[in-house]
Amino acid sequence: MLHARPIVVLLSVLIVLEGILFGVESGSPLSTIKDGILVGFLFVLPALLLGGLIFIRQPWAVMGAVIYSTIALALDLATVVQEASQGSPRLVVLILVLASSLVNFLIMIMGGRCMLTYQPSQRPAESHQSEYRSSSSS
């Protein structure tokens, strides 16, 4: 997991960007369920992936970040198209969504690089199977 540090930084930046964007967009009426789902997708899921990368250091956390950023990039691009097609697009929203799109794209690139260069010997913890084999053979 040599290249996971930039992904941690990018996920942190993404959470901050989405927080600013959510604050700008907070004037739009959403139902409680839709608001909860949006908050979960924008903040809880990246925070869980960030925690997985920092504390667990497993390769599936990087793959989860790549999958998340792929979906978020598609949503960002749909938001750009929707905002740009309005009669008077809000420039602040467009800039924040484009910045979020760029960060999501970088997470995809660096996460893919991290997964492609991953070596199983880089795992921080040993498997418990070796302990069971050594104790059963004694």
Give a verbal description of the structure.
- With 138 residues, the chain is an all-alpha fold.
- It has one domain.
- It is built from five helices and no strands.
- It starts with a helix and ends with a helix.
- The model has no long low-confidence stretch (mean pLDDT 78).
Per-chain topology:
Layout: H1 4-24, H2 32-56, H3 59-84, H4 91-116, H5 129-137
Quick structural gist:
With about 140 residues, this protein is mainly alpha-helical. Helices cover about 80% and strands about 0% of the residues.
Radius of gyration: 19 Å
Report the total helices. Answer: 5
Count structural domains.
1
| Low-pLDDT segments | none
Q: What is the SS-derived class?
A: mainly alpha
Strand content: under 5%
**What helical percentage do the residues reach?**
over 70%
What form results from the Cα inertia axes?
Answer: elongated
Run of helices and strands: HHHHH
Give the integer mean of the pLDDT values.
Answer: 78
* Count of DSSP strands: 0
Largest sheet: none
Terminal residue distance: 34 Å
Give the key terms.
0% strand; 138 residues; mainly alpha
